[in-house]
TrEMBL record:
GO MF terms held by the record: carbohydrate binding
Keywords: Signal
Record-annotated membrane-spanning stretches: none
Domain DUF4384: 54-134
Upper classification of the organism: Bacteria, Thermotogati, Deinococcota, Deinococci, Deinococcales
Species in which this protein is naturally found: Deinococcus puniceus
Start and end residues of each PEGA domain: 195-262, 275-338
Signal peptide range: 1-18
Protein's name according to its UniProt entry: S-layer protein
Keyword Nucleus: no
Coiled coil: none
InterPro entries with a match to the protein in the record: Carb-bd-like_fold, DUF4384, PEGA
Amino acid sequence: MKKLLMIPAAMLLSTAAAAPKISAQSIIVNPTQPDLSVSVRVDKDQSGNASPNYRVNEPIRISTSVNRDAYVYLFNIDSSGDVTQILPNRISGDEALVKANTTRVFPAAGDNFTFSVDGPIGLNKVLALASLSPLNLDQISSFKTQQDQFATVAAKGQDRLAQALSIVVNPLPQNSWVSDTAFFNVVGQTPIQTGSLFVGTNVSGSTVILNGQNLGTGNTTFSNLRPGSYPVRVQAPGFRDYTTTVAIRAGSTTNLNVEFAQVIAPAPTPVNQFTIAIRSNVAGALVFVDGRQVGTIQNGGLNVSVARGGREVVLIAPGYRTFINTYNVQQNGQITINPTR
């Protein structure tokens, strides 16, 4: 179901001004550091570090800005994985160009419509992809009917969208595109009072699991948590899991600091899991297995753990043809991929 609905401006009681935000997370990552930058934000996020709540049917405004003249494309991924292309669209025109050091707001001041948030309930992600040259998105998004105001993206979920967009930007110079991501939560008509949890660790790459749900990596503040007492498990490669119970309180942040010390031996590889060494002469090439990005080629290769059976392997590198092939994995092995230009 589409998350953003158009309603007449006459039905609005008020509108909010857009606030600057630069997200610390990305859906598609440029392996270089281009001098082009883009930011995307939602109007309730004043700090740039939050995932603000929007009630169903509540208006929302999305803003984007660049430091150089660039073509900017906006996508929204809802909590079920459905992807909608927000800009360009048929309401405000197909022009994607944004001038340097200016901010484009959707809906803009004076527009005779507004955006309103729809379901499903959960976390939404807004991706801004900026390019110095226009992008051809015909292969990943389309208007299903002549009446549709927004294009529907064929890729479903963050990983599939990242793979599709990686193929789109593959022919471009690496320093000519960049991305940014903003977040917001869709909640019910009556928002629940929530609290936050900060988990700090002394090991990079740790994982935080609250009440059986994977929240993300350590050294992060997790917001919009229901008050209550929950079991927490913090995991880090090579260390014994840390478990405890935390109390989440409405309107406050609970702090949990974990210091890993005891190293454990690595667990044996499951019977139906195999290690495939993917070798390539293209350093920095992106590697996808079954639509999920598993890493980049470094020092001539990348080791990947995969399940038994047919596995689609995709390798993407700027200046090279995209490599796609399916392999029947029955044991540990090696795949050598040297893509052509």
